[in-house]
Amino acid sequence: MATLSIAALIKKVEPLTDKNWHKWKSQIMMVFRSDGNAKLVQGTEKRPPPEKATDVLAWDKRDDAALAIIWACTSEDFLYLVEEETSGSACYAKLKARFETTTFARRVELRKTFYNAEHDPSRPIEIYIQKVINAKAQLTAMGHTVDDIEVKDVILMNLHSTYDTVKLSLLTQPAEPSLDVIRSILTSSSPIIDAPFAVKTEATETALATKFGRGGNDRKSGSGNPNATRKNDIGCPGHRHSKSEGGIEDSKGFRWGDVTSENCHRCGRKGHIAALCVADMPPDIKSRILNESPTRDEESSYVRNSVFRRSHSPPSPSHHVSLRANSRSPSLTGSCYDSS
Question: Cα angle at 101 between 100 and 104, to 5 degrees?
């Protein structure tokens, strides 16, 4: 049972690279605390003297097991740092010295991570806050002091726009709130701010379905006006939803632009609607949608709708009369009224 537990913990450790030492160190120490080897790996539990042969054998066995865990939790590109070692405690000390030593390039990379932390509103805000705090901890481990004022500034300046109201409230308080207070307020506000994304009303869904030409009355009414349905299919140049009725699936299994689904018609995820979707579209999906070439019917339909939009403002009285008077010449009047 203990072996299975350790194996499960190892699977949760993010493999070591040259960019995640601090996070990796915290995660792998949880594994070593579970099997009782944390002090051995950190060097505080020394190898017993040679005269205690039994204790030496037990210590060496645990040290070997620690080395194997470190190897299993290291990315392939950095296995050479582990494979040449014969002691788990010595290997950990070597890795710590390598990744906690201050270098110009590493300091710049960590500062970039710290100041440019990205807030993804589709994930819990605590993940974003912890990302900033982890970057601070890595800079501190390298000997660079980062105070709470900088942490507060970074957290607030990179907040997603959906938190603008909360951000304004924090910035306009009479006394500057502490980091703990800011963290608490943001965390407690998260369910309120994210609540609209979980609301799905029938009226909005119907409106979206009509907009994208699925289930709209214009398709089923047989009104005889093809432009009414084509106008909603085209939308705007470069975004042709009618070509992607089944959506485009990304590497995570989400279908972008699937108007046939009960999920969000934009990103394909559950829990919100397209009108409130703030998910970032993958660049390759965006490129495919923007580069889709319209069919000849779609091009002509877009031209007709463009003419309609340009001529939609009411004409002058005299011009209007002349159009009605010339009822035998349908060329101009037809192009206007057929597109409505």
Answer: 115
